[in-house]
């Protein structure tokens, strides 16, 4: 069963062909980072227009790489939310057009359901239940993935962790997108040079808060500049990163133990953070748990993850029709799992 999957929720135009839900035949990602870089963040109107320009070419490339034409497809899927509405509309419209023209079943997936499913592509033996930390530009959720669906255990009460990485990077003058730049420069810094708050780490719930941590770093920088001092960017990046990662890992491990679940997983763009991956791996080992995460290219936005998430929906006949629309604030309510 070959699914053509499309994704354009933010600033990546992406198409992939996924076979039987677990094998990547192609995974084409056209990133707009260079276009948005001068503005220090994603400009929605520029994103939409670029998706329109790139979508056809990206789809053609994904089919070619998979060695298929439209006749070789069994279904088409699209992440229809959450995301930027103008951006989402491009892949939603393209998916509907392809489904209509080639008489293919149409599947709508939740973008975060996709991020979580990337773990199945990376670990074909993976099977629910597992606890997954969704850490991305717009989400910091702890979820329980069961055979029946995805259950939200907790979420951030303010900023997403990726947002905190991006804003701290901007304050440090590192540029955009900030996550990978902090990851890189932190390797040259001392993570214990400064102590930033581990917000909510000891609280007995599965929620997060990253706005206080972000503000602590920004205030620290502000005080330095008032004294006319230069910040040690590497030390600050490393200390910020350690504070964020310690909270994420501690709460993920605690949730898994409380739920009596033996596997912890990572998903979303921040899941490509090297310290987060290392720290989770160590903590899991120390607690007798298995840790899994996708390779970095499947952590940040891509279409392959959506094709993986779409497969069980196709198998269960959960199809969309031509009324499918982009839903910018689509909720991760009960979505069905991938087993
Ligand atoms: P969402 O998935 O919540 O809708 P999004 O699609 O914009 O948001 P993703 O593409 O999943 O977000 O992730 C992008 C985020 O991941 C950005 O905040 C980016 O800085 C962060 N990120 C990417 N690589 C790293 C890294 N190595 N370390 C930390 N953060 C990273
Ligand atoms: Mg992106
Ligand atoms: Fe994403």
Determine the oligomeric state from the structure.
single chain
Find the count of extended strands (DSSP E, 2+ residues): 10
The SSE order reads: EEEHHEHEHEEEHHHHEHEHH
Q: Choose one word for the global shape.
A: globular
What is the residue-averaged pLDDT? 96
| Rg of Cα set | 20 Å
The largest sheet has its strands arranged as: 3-2-1-4-5
Give start-end ranges of low-pLDDT stretches: 334-339
Class derived from helix and strand content? alpha/beta
Bound molecules: adenosine-5'-triphosphate, magnesium ion, fe (iii) ion
Portion in helices: 40-55%
Strand content bin: 15-25%
Our measurement of the CA-to-CA distance between the termini, rounded to an integer number of angstroms, reads 16 Å
Number of helices: 11
Largest sheet: 5 strands, mixed
Compact overview of the structure:
The chain is an alpha/beta fold and 339 residues long. Helix content is 44%, strand content 18%.
Task: Lay out the secondary structure.
Layout: E1 2-7, E2 12-19, E3 23-31, H1 33-36, H2 44-66, E4 75-81, H3 85-102, E5 106-110, H4 111-122, E6 130-135, E7 140-145, E8 150-155, H5 161-171, H6 178-186, H7 211-226, H8 233-259, E9 263-267, H9 274-286, E10 290-292, H10 296-299, H11 304-315
Parallel strand pairs: 1-4, 4-5, 6-9, 9-10
Antiparallel strand pairs: 1-2, 2-3, 6-7, 7-8
Bound molecules: adenosine-5'-triphosphate (ATP), magnesium ion and fe (iii) ion (FE).
